[in-house]
Design goal:
2 domains, Aminopeptidase, alpha+beta, 14 helices, 17 strands, eight-stranded mixed β-sheet
Amino acid sequence: MALIALLLLLAAMAWHTWRLASLQKPVAPKPGSTVDAQAVAQRLSAAVQQATIWTAEDQHAAAFEALHAHLQKSFPAAHAVLQRQAFGRHALLYTWPGRDPKAPPIALLAHQDVVPIAPGTEKDWEEAPFSGKVKAGFVWGRGAWDDKGNLMAIMEAVEMLAKAGFQPRQTLYLAFGADEEVGGEDGAKFIASWLAQQHIKLRFALDEGLLITHGMVPGVRKPVALIGMAEKGYMTLKLSAHGQPGHTSMPPMRSAIGMVGEAVAQVEAHPMPARLTGLPTEMFEAVAPEVDGPMRWILSNLWLTSPLVIHELEKAPSANAMLRTTAVATVFQAGERENVLPGVASALVNFRLLPGDSSEQVQAHVQQVLKGLDVQVSLQPQLAQASPVTPSSDPAYRLLAQTLRELQPDVVVAPGLLMGGTDARHYAQVSEALLRFTPMHAAQADLSRFHGSNERISLDNYVGMIQFYERLLRNAETL
């Protein structure tokens, strides 16, 4: 009987694997528009040279103003057809009126601000962080990737279209926040609120996000374009303990630091449960027909193999983050002198919320894990629930897939989950279709440059981004 059961199971798996058809819709290839790579590289270089770092004191206001002047000078045809508004300190909203006032408008998002250079790492840069050096087929510098590459590529595409006499059918908004790296409260939030006040409902909004990956999906030899259909939420809990202050020569049985340290260890040792549902499942289902070898069997039969897949994915931080709400201690505060017991100790634990997990559920989970420990748990002010999930059946997803595969027919397109945060979350009040995707090719080795040293973008990548946005706006006519 056991042998028969095994044979039936193998037969069922073989059937599932065999019948799994590709989800990649056939698209007729079309070459991208001609782009002067050197000219666009120089304009991106000039943008990168502006250190647009957001600070509370607005120390880099001149850099933002210089970037705005650069946009006006570099894209005269675009500025002739666009209406410009300013929000907050430095955020910009451009409006390109459409031919059909009844057609639901669309929005392309990007942000002007960049993260600062980590102190002491300046020497690790092959080129100065804000040099904008064009060398060896790359534009080097902070922001070349995140996110001036997207911003400038969008403007290059609009300039090309305006020069060609194109006018979109639906009104197009270009929303360029200036404080995305610190939450978007002074940029994207203001713009989205204004759109809501005007009763404007976007057909879709596209922001930065996931990439065209190479070698990151096991078993898939082709490049895989992952389109972020949702992003994880953000919250931080403060774990605090009070102890008996005094001299270290006569310590109590439990110190405040010891209690908080144990609490942190317990939280990290008892994470929220992993689950292979929602977007991760959709992603594997989309790529499974393109997988070679035994991995195709595994991914084609998640109804049976999901425990094995979860076990393997949990071993890699990036894959583990797809499966659960993550927790990690980031700040510890206690003590001033080595021979004095502090009366209070605290630690901050940062959580990234999986869609389906609320901040209330996470806090309840932590309190249950710490039951019996004399530790207080409090929610910190900065909080963002996980975003709603845009279904992959949405026409906006199909529009992106069509555009990608017209320009690059070998690309496999799949829905994905973005681990970080973007300005897109602020636009949930004005659109039910929010996509997070950067049309840039990247391998695993490139990811360390994101917010790290030696950030750069290849000219080939940048030209491809411009061609993508230009084609996307043309294809949007059919929405």
